[in-house]
Amino acid sequence: MRLLAALLLLSSAPAAAAVDLYAPVYTYHMPYAYSPALRRTYNDVPLGVGLGKDGVFAMEFVDSHDRPQYNAGYALLPTWRPFGKDVALGAGLAGLIIARSDIRRYTPFPAVLPLGSVAYRGVALQTTFIPGANVVFTWLKLSLF
Description:
9 strands, mainly beta, 8-stranded antiparallel β-barrel, globular, 145 residues, Porin, disordered N terminus
């Protein structure tokens, strides 16, 4: 149901753009912010999925506490191709709405987060740092068609 709403939103984007599939791969909890004992209790593998088109995205995954987290927003990610046409480096920002169980029991809240990306053809490894939580969240972005 949640992804259906995202698909409806994405279907209104121009047809020329690729549809992107997002696959969360890793959550890193900064050692300076969490004790080793606490870090051992956190989930570092955020299983989930997301869809995007033209910078608009929606993603659902399992958070550090093994509960669903929902993100939707817009990513502005300018890229550079210093190594030829196949490799792209990117840096930008995402404005998004997040809903988590441990923050006001899934009441959505806004966030603006930094983005970084390294891409080869249609596959990109993207990451963000979440200040306050002191977490680095990383995912794959696959451009399907």
